Amino acid sequence: MLNPECxxxxxxxxxxxxxxxxxxxxxxxxxxxxxxxxxAAAQLDGEVERIEAWVSPNLMKNGMGVTVPGTGMVGLPxxxxxxxxxxxPAAGLEVLKQASPEAIAQAKHMLAEGxxxxxxxxxCDELLYSRAKVWRGERWASTTIAGGHTRVVAxxxxxxxxxxxxxxxxxxxxxxxxxxxxxxxLADILNFIEHVPFExxxxxxxxxxxxxxxxxxxxxxxxxxxxxxxxxKQCERGLMTYDLSSEIVIRTAAASDARMGxxxxxxxxxxxxxxxxxxxxxxxxxxAEHFHAGDERLARALMLSHLSAIYIHAQLPRLSAxxxxxxxxxxxxxxxxxxxxxxxxxxAKAISSMIGDVSGIICDGASNSCAMKVSTSASSAWKAVLxxxxxxxxxxxxxxxxxxxxxxxxxxCALACNAMQQTDRQIIDIMAKxxx
Length: 436
Known about the structure:
Helices cover 57% and strands 11% of the residues. It contains 18 helices and ten strands.
């Protein structure tokens, strides 16, 4: 229970983190379709025999090249099949956590038989949309998810509506945490993390536990592009120095390697993305270890990082052409700078420098190369912190950076919400031509 002394705003901060920072097994776009399949399959008696699915262009973009945990296969078809045959419809972003080897084998057989069909939903007003229609003989059921990775808006069976979300009635309930975040400030977040009772935020330590386990798995060197393991190896060869800067990059990249490579371990996500959760978590964990920070100080730094990431992402589309590992790493910059000196000006300078540094990185779909972008963003975050500690930063006289960090964030998000929408369409067009 919340401490009665916590202010209403603090309670909303905690709720925002509880809703936006959750365990997720596998890339969340394929997982969203797997969840739709699992919920639809739960409406039928017996085993699903074939599947039809429709997804938004953005969900297609983020699902084409990513490995589905436990399968060794990439793409949306295997996610849809495994969700229907072995998914837990009540598990949210961990829908595939309990999928058995038998279910995985059945899913692969279903694909080999050509009984899974994935189409792009056109037109589609939602950036995040998936609808799975599953069949057993002549009987069928369907589930539609829209507006959020786990936000079920409709369930049907044989043409009968079993569930329909009343958008008007649920708008305030669904959007309240993010609406609050978009209206707050980094200064409010900093005040919160410095004064909220530790017991109210202890739960955020689970992010460190889950994402560090992914990092350790990634360092085994068998996942994705094994960037973290490769850089660690180059340190051993003397081509890099293993210091705090390199450790931040190595351990953060390794977690993304494991996640994107299909490791059967959950990530603690942020804003619906495991990579964003990793980017907001691992740099802070490494710096906290360096300074021998205890659980309470780590929890406050992680809360600052994750809330800052949510605050920025609340001003962005759920999916866009802007790689959100960059904005999540801005949260990490805030958390790391607070661990070092605790001053608002330092974290503000660090975030502004990052906006002047990595704001142009595009999202071209979820894939093993996401770990490259995560590592680049982690490196940028620490570099920006080091600059801020020396009282230097990209200034408001340069590019899209403004004199006030809040305005800098607004400028970045305006680009993603407006001009980069055309970039997103062109990226999707390029990827669709590659797939055809």
